[in-house]
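Archive entry: two folds, one per protein. Generate the first.
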Amino acid sequence: MTFNEQAANIIRNQAEFLTHIETLSHSGEWGLQRVAE
């Protein structure tokens, strides 16, 4: 795997992670909001 492919994978994974965090932070469940913080 080339450096550019690795970088693209890392960026994609981080974007997915941030999407999950955003979803959790907007959750109605207090515990999940705390985890997201």
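Generate the second and append.
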Amino acid sequence: MRWKKERLAEKGFTLIELILVMAILALLMALAVPRFTAALENSKIQAHNANVKMIEQAAELAYINGVKVGDIKMQKLVDDDYLKEAPEVPKIKDISNSTYDVTATINEKNKLIITVIPAAIDKSENNP
């Protein structure tokens, strides 16, 4: 009998307290999500930069080993084992689901110029 009286004397949380806790949690989430999103975007940009550097180094090595400038393309770098596989462009804003195009040229000072850009994305009906 005593236990029933003690049990009845206990009170739960009020509606105001619950709403206050929910508001605090919402505020914390509002602060945390943008920081997480920015960190995720920065990591993708760093991955893209690392991919470009790796492709440039592979193209330079191919050129040093005697591959003609006009033949330095992504598939050639993969086929000749300068790259293990063609890296994909990390999904950054509007650029995604593509690989890189590689172009090598020699400038007027006889210096090798390597251009690495994301390949054009085919948005036709066959490739949504």
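Annotation attached to the second fold: The CA atoms of residues 41 and 93 lie 9 Å apart. The beta strands are 100-106, 112-118.
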